[in-house]
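DM from R.C. (forwarded with permission)

"hey, sorry to bug you on a friday — could you get me a structure for this? deadline for the figure draft is monday and I only need the backbone to look sensible"
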Amino acid sequence: MINQYGRIAVDSATELEELRAVGFNSEDFETLLRRALTNYKTYESQNDWLREHVATDEQNIFLFLETKQPLTQAVFYCIAAQLLGFTEALAGNGYNGVATFRQLGLPIATVNNLRHAWYELLNSHTNNGLLFIDELASQGYFESNNHRLLFNGKSLPTYNTNDLIRESVWVETSVDTDNDGRFDLVQVDIIRPNTNEKLPVLFTASPYYQGLNEKENDAKVHDVNVPLTRKDTHQSTHQSALSNLNQMEETVAKPLARQINGYAEEASVIFTQESGKPVDLNQYFLSRGYAVVYAAGIGTRHSDGMQDTGSPEQVESMKNVVEWLAGNRVAFTDRTSNIAIVANWSNHNIAMTGRSYLGTLATAVATTGVSGLKTVISEAAISNWYQYYRDNGLVVAPGGFPGEDMDVLAELVYSRIKDPADWLKTKNQWDDFQANTEKFTDRVNGNYDYYWDTRNYLNQVKNIKVDMIMVHGLNDWNVKPRQVYQLWSALRDLPNVKKIYLHQGQHIYINNNRSLDFSDQMNLWLTEKLLDKDVKANEILPTVTWQDNTTEDAWHVLDEWGASKKGKYYIGNNVLTTNQNSGELNFKDWLPENQFAYYCEHFDKWRDDTITGKLPTNQIFKSETYTSERTVDGEILLNLRVKSSQNIGLISAMVVDYGNDTYLKETPTNQGVVIDRGVNFSPTDLMSFESEKYAYKMITIGHINLQNRTSPRQNDDLWPNKYVDLHFELQPTYYKMRPGHQLGLIIYATDFEMTIRGNQSIAYTIDLSKSSLDVPFTCKK
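My reply, with the result:
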């Protein structure tokens, strides 16, 4: 199924005007067809193609045309399916083109209005992941004349990607993070079509862009095989973190701006290729007349400053790049001459793009309210750094990266190390800076404090003035779904237009997914936001687009994410029931040393063994077998009365879908097809989520320190063998439960992938009479 949400309806006059503009203004089917055979340059070679393809299950196209038979809907869509590359699907449907189009979810029009039918066909997706009109363009249908051509509200790839301008400038920021008395300069790399047109800009703020220090990063990773320790209940917020940040803020005001010695019309530094891997969505737009800009920011190669993960200073430096692109800040042609340069090629309308750290900084810059930024397309973005490396008073790693933390990530991207002279000059300062970062993040305490509060962008959501696109994987345990859910919830009452895409993948991009026209939708979106064209993108694009977790290639439009009402399950002896229970259940968070060591290295195996009940370190509870479909919509709340045998403790919880069935893989599969992002430009693999048979699927997860049961800011006392009450929310989701399946809850302590692993002999007891699970179910009527 091809799900196209980026198609707009236009009147017949506009259709005719656009068809003329792209050279398809004939009323003769054969003329239109031959014009679409872009790869066949002669009449004779076109005839070969016509003889090799069918008009019906009994006649090839050449004979059909030669005998001047009337064009029927059946013939049109039989030929159309082959033009789009769906020959295999067509054959599977007995060469019934109409049935094939219906199966694929493609538009069908009456051929009595041939121009309209052809217009719809040009706006249909091919088997190669592009609109038909875009695929023709990739085959050289259009001359690359570096002029914008809109079709159905979207820019066509008419810009020459073999003649791109690549240049570097240095933006003067308003921060001085290396305390040298001068504002930090950051390198900005620009890639743009060679045209006199004013160009809209896609800016990606990527600390990864100038290279990674993988060896240094690995050496910095923290040991997670450490014991959980008791917290002082009288401990206050870290004043040291507050003092340090205040000191940094004071240094910002001291430096003076550089004296401008003149202006240049052209940059003095050019480059042949991007330093880091280009963002595929950016490449898509380069051939469609957008400039693409990358900056790694302060504390990276060829720039000044110290690398401070997620800090206000890092965000400010990226905001400053937006200001230059919008014509409101100075940049220089190099780091020493003070010759200024303006972005005279920019139309001063900027969008920020990117995934993970890149999308995080895009979100953060949006919260500054900076002028010139018109929209953000953030994918798998962090909105609160505390929720990335901590959770409810615990040190918690992003999935797959035990031992990573703010200082470790900073070490990875402090690419000034790669230039020997720069490294020798800054090494001592960097080592001191990193020591301070480790102290401020406090891996022993794990509490939310001023340090983390300054890196919580949710605090400034009210300052977001731009319309937002958010994309997140519901199986992303790196940047977990809470990051986007809390941002989505915080934006709910603001006047901004906001759209969210929830897919079934992990930490991935979705712009090359076969079943969703994401790139097309963003093309329509940016026509409105950056080109100032009224193409009704706000109304056309769905508010919430959710990928079905039960069916391949199925996407659904929702009105909202997060049900307001929750149904209650009570926790019983190995069951989830609607009746309150009594009694106690126990488990001990300890494993023999050899087994513990094995799971430390193979935490995927630990998770499987936990879910299947092969370990004694947990309790599993299952619901009745469902007889009807229901959907978990939002955050599940766990209410637990529990006691620890010691004056320390942690609780983890998983919710699992138990049922022998097919489940979508969390990693999409390469379809063996390459998508062209222009004309022989930046090929990317076409991907699709496929299914596999399995007995269960983890839906969501959560963790809490028993001493932080009131708040991540507050340390509560804990006494051995004395019950305490916990109420904490698991990661949000939108998940369909099918008939014949059971909802499962697993309560345990150490999470071998995410929490610290002390292997302490702590026994936990659950009071069933005071323990329950609140599930936001929406049931199918």
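R.C.: lifesaver. Confidence is low (pLDDT under 50) at residues 237-245, 247-252.
me: no worries. The longest strand covers residues 650-664.
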